[in-house]
Amino acid sequence: MKINLSRTFWVLLLPVMILWVGCSGREGEQETETPAGEIAEFPRLMIQPGDTLFFRPIGHITDGYQTPRHLEKEAVHSFIFVEPADSISNIRNYESGKTLNFSLGEDLMISAKINRNQAIGERIRNLTATVKEPYEGVVTLSVNDTTITGNIDLVSQNRLFHIRYDSISGLHYVADIDRSKLDVMQGSDPLELN
């Protein structure tokens, strides 16, 4: 019985090569995507639930979701997935004078009074609100037909919160941002508020 070693070699080597090529083709994807369940790389922003709040936390049902891809590790203290407590169509029609309530942590609740609800084109409404005492700051929200984005700039506490929509999970989130990591030009110091 004669064994053809070169044929046996290729029969054994071919599956290994296919596996290697398949894995190396995914190498770039693995570097840019966060595996499911790794939300822990960002601490969870612990906001309070409540019927009168603008957003409700839904972090308890999102443990299997990936971290939103636009979160920059260096600039984010914590984040949590949320959902608007009211329908987006109602939010688009909020009038000047209406008060919005936000939980921004276990012990931080703020209220903001809407100053303006302005149309930006046909699909977008831009809401601006002033944070009420004892805090100072500004809330800006951009609301289209399906999503809300914006910022809560809590000047008196030197804190900044981003409200964003993550298209992969289909969820909104609030992120507590490290202001010192923003507005930095290469070779310069971060901008600071006095």
Written overview of the protein:
The protein has 194 residues and is an alpha+beta fold. The chain is built from three helices and nine strands; from the N terminus they run ααββαβββββββ. It has helices at residues 5-25, 27-32, 88-92; strands at 55-57, 76-84, 99-105, 108-120, 124-131, 138-143, 148-154, 159-166, 171-177. The chain has a nine-stranded antiparallel β-sheet. A hairpin with a 3-residue loop joins strand 4 and strand 5 (124-131). The longest helix is centred in the first third of the chain and has 21 residues, at 5-25. The protein is globular, with a radius of gyration of 24 Å. Mean pLDDT is 78; it is low at 7-40.
SSE diagram, text form:
Elements: H1 5-25, H2 27-32, E1 55-57, E2 76-84, H3 88-92, E3 99-105, E4 108-120, E5 124-131, E6 138-143, E7 148-154, E8 159-166, E9 171-177
Antiparallel strand pairs: 1-2, 2-9, 3-4, 4-5, 5-6, 6-7, 7-8, 8-9
Task: Provide keyphrases for this structure.
194 residues; alpha+beta; nine-stranded antiparallel sheet; globular
